[in-house]
Amino acid sequence: MIAHYHAQTWNASELARAFGVAHTTVQRYLDVLTETFMVRQLPPWHENLAKRQVRAPKVYLRDAGVLHSLLGVTSIAQLDSHPKVGASWEGFALDVVLDQLQARPGEAYFWGTQAGAELDLLVVRGETRVGVEFKRTSSPKLTPSMRSALADLRLDRLYVVHGGTEVFPLADRVEAVPLTRVLEVLPPVGEWTCTPGNTSTAFGPRRMTTHWTVHRTTHPRFPFRVAVERDGRTLLAVRASAAWPGPGQQVFCLREDGSEPEEPMTLVERVPVISCTQLGRKLAIVLDRPLRKRCEFLFIAKPYRDRPGSYEQVFFRTEAGIRSHRSRSRLEVRGGDAELQLVIDSGERYAWKFPGAAVTTRKLPAGDYALLDGERIAAVVERKSFDNLLGDLGAIQALHHALAHLGQYAWSALVVEAQYADFIDEKRLEGRWPAPFVARALAELTVMHPRLPIVFAGNRKLANQWTHRFFVACAAHRAAPPPSIVRETPQGELSLDDAGSVDERVRVAVMRPGRERFALTEIGAEVAGASMVAVRRVVKELEREGKVRCLGRGRGARWEVAGGGE
Questions:
Q1: Pairing state of beta strands 210-216 and 517-518?
Q2: What dihedral do alpha carbons 445, 446, 449, 454 form, nearest 10°?
Q3: Most CB atoms closer than 10 Å: which of 114, 151, 169, 371?
Q4: 178 has which bridge partners?
Q5: Cα separation of 115 and 138, whole Å?
Q6: In this model, does residue 458 exceed pLDDT 60?
Q7: pLDDT band at 51 (very low <50, low <70, confident <90, very high)
Q8: What is the pTM of this model?
Q9: How confident is the model at residue 491 (pLDDT cuts 50, 70, 90)?
Q10: In whole angstroms, what separates CA 537 from the centre of its chain?
């Protein structure tokens, strides 16, 4: 029966009626097959949309040979004429893509609506969303279902994996990729990049070629076209009055509307790009040449004087122009007024104080202090006193594991209540460790965890103040993120917004916008790797916090989210 459900949404009640058993019995057997890696359950993704969405998972038999045997297929010719050939191909392609993406549990979903729109695979990592559609045809087309998924799910990218041989674009942010070239084109999730200073994303397992190009045009006022191109695709193009700003100058530019220019142009220069990073409202670019290599584009939204709305101004300037401009000391992240939602780990003794913040206490998956964005951890800090850090050096391999977990969050830091000089002072060390060993160990921590800042704040008070300002800046950045400047970011590090522990993923699933009522079994099926014990524990915590309430008794009890999950 599961073979006939392959690549379809699961309906436990239908099978229960056919076998004359309870639907919970059918679901239990499916869970056993899932846990023994015979079956893959792809959970549904829910958005707070004005559409009725599919709530049941899709199921796939992981082994194509087992599937074909259960279907009675014994030859390629028989498979080609079988009505499940498309589903068989989809299941095989799904395994290849998931293996290439290396998505963690809780990052892979499918999406569908009752009206028929659907997306075969949705991979979510932090703020980044990538969709995948599977089409056995060799010439896939952009469908209304794909357009709906792009708009409703706000996809950063949509790949259409097909049975042909060519890679080609179908639309903006939509690319057709043959199954035979998935390993070449699709990037593993770990290579998606996003840091607090880089709000764009980079896709591609291979190192894609990015170039800076300058063309001379026939326009009298804007005689130059300056563009950043990646593998022949234009990421950003502007019309400028000069090919490079003069000393201390900035050049006013007009951004192209996205259509390819039809006028005749002459290539002036083409230079490889070393890095291209969005920093707030600026796009900072470093070119691979000894001189005239650093520049940036500044994007400003100016309000109209005579009517509502705003228009864009773009300024092209060099490093010298940046240093001479009066805005050179202006901060990118402004202080926010919103109340901070903080969590202190339940094991923390003599906790720091955060005046004006809403503080709760619970067990954190990593770190000692965390900033919340809804139920998800947005930023986290590990606190170490002088004695704590010295003690941890005795089990430095365990410390490496803890810091590796900490560093997976978009914003994280290790904050030490001591000066660096204290750790190389033989008098302060009092013979516990030789000073050269401690210096090497601290250097090793920095090298092994390059994404994790280590802040030697000096003392407890300054460490508390630094962490408070850090959380304020993180909250302000999330509340007013900078605009997206380019369609894709060619280079740079991407944010690894952590998928979180099982408990955290259960919290996010329960409090997902739009969820009003749920059963514990629904959450257990939705959150990969979550046992019913973990689900009950987290839901009970949420009940104590006043965020959910129980509407009944016994195994059939349902729960209600306070405020409807808003």
A1: unpaired
A2: 100
A3: 371
A4: 162
A5: 27
A6: yes
A7: low
A8: 0.50
A9: very low
A10: 27
